[in-house]
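Trying the structure run again after the queue cleared.
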Amino acid sequence: MTDYLQPSRRRFLLQAGGGCGAIALSSLLHSDRSAKGGVADNPLAPRQTHFAPRARRVIWLFMHGGPSHVDLLDPKPELVRLHGTPLPDSFGSVMTRRNVARNPLLGPIRPFRPRGESGLEISDFLPHTAKHADKLCVLRSCHGDSVNHPQSVYQMNTGSILMGKPSLGSWSAYGLGTENGNMPAFVVLPDPGNGVKGGPPAWGSGFLPATFQGTTMRAGKNPILHLNPQPEVTSDRQHKAFSLIRYLNHQHAQQRDFDEELLARVNSYELAFRMQTTAPEVVAISQESAATHKMYGIGGKDTDEFGRRCLLARRMVERGVRFVQLYSGDTGGWDAHKDVTTNHDLYCRRTDLPVAGLLQDLCERGLLDDTLVIWGGEFGRMPMSEQGKGRDHNPWGYSVWFAGAGVKGGFAYGATDPVGLRAVEKPVHIHDLHATILHMLGINHEELTYFHNGRDERLTDVAGKVVHEILA
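Done. Tokens:
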């Protein structure tokens, strides 16, 4: 006799001792599961928010490697004045003062200028994004807890420097579901290079059911590898096979008390089946006009690849995908240790025009009103030089910008110290950043929990406060 037909202690007590109470409890649990869009029904069904949301969806532009805030978004006249001199003791510490004679302060590589009607200062590194300054809310006082890439990538994505926790996109999918049942709630568009430091756990679901992990996609005829059936498998044959497998899966799951990990696997296969007809149309950017392609820099030598992914992100959120994350930069990326000029010239050329095109396109289509666009990396860069022309990692103070979904445009929040080393005015920890993003999605970060290993876990752990001052 197979193991699953053997009477377990739990099943024996349920059948012999539970009686009508067990039947009633089973009915209540099923109703509760259905109301919540549980994994036994449709885990990605749209769910009620805690309060009226400002944002229905998120596009996160992740600049992997650590873009330099003091060269892009955080103007520091004092850093210009002190260029070439050691870091003053008043700004230093045992860690940051070491080798200061060898690593003097390095002034901004490109000048900052007031932009738009707001006068928000943005570097000449980002001339196209700067045209949208009045849409941007720059948080200049962000800070995290690790100086290393993998841990910082994990923390920016999951709230923890440790691998294995659910990402912000996964929490959003778990809390909100999707607006398109034929597409994942959380999609990741990785850089075509050789991955990010820390790898796929950055967009993993951790202890949440696997249904909520990020689904990686790419442009072209095969948005997800191995998704399409073999040519000899007809649509009718596939539908019949799918119906049989669905029935057998339900029977199999029923005999195992609808185990959530098992059902997450089943749901992922069912979603893959539905995506076979939906995903190819979503990624068909050839349907867009020549003017739209030009807006994103598609066809340009440096901008084509990132432009295609930015346009793909717009097409996805337009079709109901809840959370889209784009990565710029592979394992090296924006990590300008040797030469900020060479590194940031390259990555700004690749991304600046596509990002500006994305903001313009979302605005023209009325999507920016309820789409939150986020731009930033896992940390910033030091004000001191490294190897003469580069900068080291700086998790103690850096910049991230928001746009859309009712944030204050043309606005800078918080500040680092006069040389850009540490967040000193209205500091925004990563937990605060996450709490604010969830708040904009209509979610109370303290109430979005998942019971795991004996406690109710949440994205922000036991911290996090919403930065209400950036909301219009």
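The longest strand covers residues 136-143. Worth checking whether this holds up in the mutant runs.
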